[in-house]
Amino acid sequence: MRRPRWLLSLAPLFALVACTAARDKLPTGVDAAPTVERVVLLMRHGVRPPTKDPVIPAGYTTEQWPSWPVATGELTPHGADGVRALARYDRTVFARLGLLPATGCPAAGTVAVTTSPRQRTVATGRAYAEALLPGCDLPIATVPGSPDPVFHAIEAHAVPFDSHLAWLAAKARLPEGGLATEARHLEPELQLMQHVLGCCAPAVCARAQLASGCTFDALPGKLEEEDGDRPRLGGPFGVASTASQTFLLEYLEAMPADAVAWGRLDRDGIERLLRFHPLKFAYENRPPYIAQRAAAPLMRRILDALLTGAPVTVLAGHDTNIADVGGFLEMHWHAVGYPADDVPPGGAIGFELLRAPDGARFVRAFFRAQTMDQLRTLAPLDAANPPSWAPIAIPGCTDDSGRGCPLELFADLVQTRLDSPAPH
Q: What is the DSSP letter of 41?
C-alpha cells in the first residue's frame, strides 16, 4: 500500500466529539481508553425557511404556505437557539475529552470555525461559537466567493466536472425497472404526499402527458442531465423531497400543528415523507463520480484538520455537503427519528482522531443530531437527554483491533480519492 511521505513524520494527532457514555466502551482486548486528540465536525445549518418562493412549482398544490419570521433561506431565531443547545452540549463533551476547559476561554487556536458564505451558515457558525465559548469572542472564518470553492465546489467550477459523466454515474444507480421501481417502493409515501398537497392541476398533468385529474403518485419520475451541474432527480421525487423538507422545517420551527403541512401530518407522517430527501441524495450526491469531486475541497480540509488542525474544528455548511462527504467515503448513518442517510438541521458528521496507549493513532466517524422533538421544543441537552449519536463505519478502513481506522490508512484512502477520483 502506498504511504504518503508526509505521513512518516507526523506528530500526535486527532480528535472528535463523543456523545454518550456508551460510545466510550472499549472493544474486547483493549486495556485502556484511547485519548481523543482532535475533533472535526461538518454540520448542517440550523432551521431556516424554504430557500425559494414558491416552495414547489405551481400546480402541485393550491394551498398557501405559512409565513416565516425571516427572509427566504435565512436562519431563524428558533434555529439559532437549536444550534446553541447543540453547542452547549458539545462543550460538555469536549471538556470531558480534555479538548476544552469546562468553563472559561481556551487558548487561542483551540477551536476553529469555518462557514459557507450563505447567511444561514454564517449565522449558524456564530450561534454555535457564541454558545460553545460564551464571552470568548471566537473568530469565525467564512470561505469567500459566491458560489464558494469549498462548500459549493461544482457550482464554483473549483473541481474538474463533466455533467454528462455525472448523469451516467447517477443513471447507473437506478434499480432494475428504473424510477418506476423506486415509485413502486414508495407508493404509500407518494399517496400520502398526494393527500397533503391535493395535487394536481391540469397543467401539471398535461406536462406529464397524463389525463387531467391525475394524482401525485401517477406522475413519472425523471433523472435529468443538468448542463455543467450535478444531475437532478425530478418529477414527483424532487417535488416530494422539497415539500417534505419544508414540512419538517415547519415542525422544527415549532409552528402550530394546524400550520405544519396544513394540519395534515403529524411527526410520524413527516418522518415517512422524509424518505424522499435521502433518495435525492442517492442520485445527486452519493455516486462516486459526483461525490469524489464535489466533496474534494471539504475532504482536504477535514484531513488537514485531523492531521495538523485545532483540537476542535467546526465546518458549518449544508446537507448537500454532508451527503457528498458520505458518498466520498461510502459511509451511511441513521439518526434517531429520521430515514437512513438523512441530514437534519444542525446534524453533523464527525471524525475523531484518537491515540491508543501503545501510541497507535486511528480515526473514528460518527453522526450526531437533535431529535425532531428536541429541536421543536428546544429541550436542554444533557446526559439525561442527549442528542442522537451513532458511530459510522468507514468502508475499507478498519483493522483487526476493532479500535477504528488506522490514521495512515484513512489518510491514504482520502488522498487516493483526491488524487484519482472515480472516472465514471
A: E
| Residue 386 C-beta-side C-alpha neighbours within 13 Å | 18
Q: Is 337 inside any structural domain?
A: no
**Please, which residues have CB within 8 angstroms of residue 336's CB and are 6 or more apart in sequence?**
369, 371, 388
Q: Do 369 and 45 contact (CB within 8 A), yes or no?
A: no
Q: Is the pLDDT of residue 297 over 80?
A: yes
CA separation for the pair 243, 280 (Å, rounded): 13
Residue from 255, 331, 263, 328 nearest 296 by CA: 328
* Residue 415 grid cell: 488522498
pLDDT for the residue numbered 4: 41
pLDDT band at 399 (very low <50, low <70, confident <90, very high): confident
Helix (H) or strand (E) holding 112: strand 111-115
**E strand residue ranges, 259-333:** 312-317
Does residue 246 sit within a domain? yes
- Supply the pLDDT for residue 162: 98
Strand 140-142 to strand 111-115: parallel, antiparallel, or no bridges (unpaired)? parallel
Give the contacts of 226 (CB within 8 A, at least 6 positions apart).
163, 167, 232
Q: What is the pLDDT of residue 403?
A: 80
Q: Is the pLDDT of residue 133 over 60?
A: yes
Query: Does residue 242 lie in a domain region?
Result: yes
Rg (C-alpha) for the chain, rounded Å, is 22
- Pick from 351, 356, 359: which is nearest to 410 by CA? 351
CATH number of domain containing 193: 3.40.50.1240
* Tally of structural domains, the chain: 1
Is residue 192 predicted with pLDDT exceeding 70? yes
Which residue in the block uniquely carries the three cell numbers 473514528? Answer: 364
